[in-house]
Amino acid sequence: MTERQRYLFIRILEACNADCFMCEFALSRDTFRFSLDDFNELLPKARDAGVAYVRFTGGEPLMHKDVVELVRAGTDAGMKMSMITNGMMLPKKAARLAEAGLAQVIVSLDGGSAATHDVYRRSPGMFDNGLQGLRDAAALGVLPRVNTVVGPHNYTEMPDLQKVLTEAGVKQWELSALKLERSITYPDPDHVRAVCDPIYDADPGTLLVPLGKRFYGDTREEQERYFSESLTPRASAPLCHVVDDVIYIDGKYGRMYACSCLPHREGEDLGGAPLREGGAIHLDTPVFRTHADFFRERGPDMCGGCSTTAAGYSDDVARLGTAAPWQY
Q1: Distances 129 to 36, 60, 94, 133, 212 between C-alpha atoms, Å
Q2: I want to staple 32 with a disulfide (CB 3.0 to 4.6 A). Which of 104, 123, 192, 252 is the partner?
Q3: Stretch 13-20: mean pLDDT
Q4: 145, 125 in Cβ contact below 8 A?
């Protein structure tokens, strides 16, 4: 059994240049930026906590003026650096990011072509720029991944997107269910299965196969819960293992969470822990461990917002005792 190494997610800003209908940060002009000084203070604490993978999130991380230097600082500290981006600015910055040591880039693509993706994201040019950025990054030795939000509006396009991403040389793909404050309704769940089951059952030597669980669930019980109650697949009982390996930092509000899904759930007291105590950054504090322990025990029963990779990662750890790098 190999020792697992932890993931640190940092929301380094909330500003964004996209107008995605499902996102709380659409066209945000928020001025907060997680500083290079903060990151340099954080890095030794991250090493002490067993972190090996750092992922920048937003907002749109490429709008951060110091994003290349942030990547360089993490790389110089021995971290494998990653970021998730809408891809619009990636072709212009891929070479500098690769030179700074970026190990993985994740681009959000939701349609099978520019004609649909740019409409969903309400951002002309985003599909072509994102795809070109992925190709450029891959040519520079950066692992290319795509995250897709899928729902009734676009599930029929997923076979086409699978082919596009395979041809572009994308190595990882997450399909996660659309989450809104209202129920998500599919007129015909059997049609969803007929369209999407072949995506997951494809020969991985021929086509790119998504990571983690099916976005509508692997089992009939999960699928019934998803199609009737809009509850996405979650970690299998009895425990959630993501919370042992993940620290998510909301930079603006200085809070830590034990899963990357938790900070995006609205209207709930999610606990978490302060990033600073006595003015200094601390990870794995008693308050944070209490928060993580709660969701380890209760998450499989109460969480309805898992990403497919989070659910799959937890199940892999439960089954195998470990999970492959970058599977979350």
Answers
A1: 27, 14, 11, 6, 26
A2: 252
A3: 90
A4: no
**What pTM was computed for the model?**
0.95
Distance of alpha carbon 305 from alpha carbon 310, whole angstroms: 10
What six digits make up the tokens of 158? Answer: 């997923």
The counts of H helices and E strands in the chain are 10, 11
Q: Tell me the Ramachandran region of residue 279: left when phi exceeds 0, alpha when psi lies from -120 to 50, beta otherwise.
A: left
Please check whether residue 248 is in contact with residue 262, taking contact to mean a CB–CB distance below 8 angstroms: yes
The upper half-sphere exposure of residue 309, i.e. CA atoms within 13 Å in the direction of its Cβ, equals 23
Rounded to whole angstroms, the Cα distance separating 277 from 283 reads 10
Alpha carbon distance 17, 120 (integer Å): 14
Q: What distance in Å separates the CA atoms of residue 102 and residue 104, rounded to the nearest whole number? A: 6
The tens digit of pLDDT for each residue in 264-319 reads 765 556 779 999 999 999 999 999 999 999 999 998 888 876 889 999 999 999 99
User: In this predicted model, what pLDDT tens digit does every residue of 211-234 receive, in sequence order?
Assistant: 999 999 999 999 999 999 988 988
Look at residues 150, 122, 149, 127 and name the one whose alpha carbon lies nearest to residue 19.
122
Q: Name residue 11's beta-bridge partners.
A: 57, 250
pLDDT digits (tens, 9 = 90+) for 67-82: 999 999 999 999 999 9
How far is CA 82 from each of CA 45, 48, 115, 136, 170, rounded to the nearest angstrom?
Answer: 18, 19, 28, 15, 15
- CB-based contacts of 85, cutoff 8 Å, min separation 6: 58, 60, 61, 62, 105, 106, 107, 108, 130, 133
128/136 Cα distance (integer angstroms): 12
pLDDT level of residue 1 (50, 70, 90 thresholds): very low
